[in-house]
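Q: Structure tokens for this one, please.
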Amino acid sequence: MKIEIKHTFEVDDDISDAIIKLNKKHIFTRFCCSGHKGSLYPYVAFTKGASRRRLKTLPKNWIKEKGTYGASIYRLFSEYELNNFSEDELLKISMKELDTWVDSLERDYCEFGEYEVNIK
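A: Here is the predicted structure, written as tokens:
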């Protein structure tokens, strides 16, 4: 049996590649933000199942926070980073860290077996 999951949502352009790759690997997200000038707080919130199975490692320099509906990961910048890099540079650094981590993850399988996700 194949189940096709269709879910439409808006996502920031800078984080969209990472979110697409996560979902293709069956590591589902609830919401996310790439961070913005004046609001340097990139984060990804995961579903409960993804939180239990896949958040044993984290992107370099990212922090995990457990929540009621699943865990979130986010990037806080050090005083050194804030003083030595522009906001644009910091956001690019954080997206590179996230992408590198996502690329290192293997495809996940839910407890109901393998299912297919079609993302266009």
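A few notes: Residues 111-118 have pLDDT under 50 and may be disordered. The chain has four helices and four strands.
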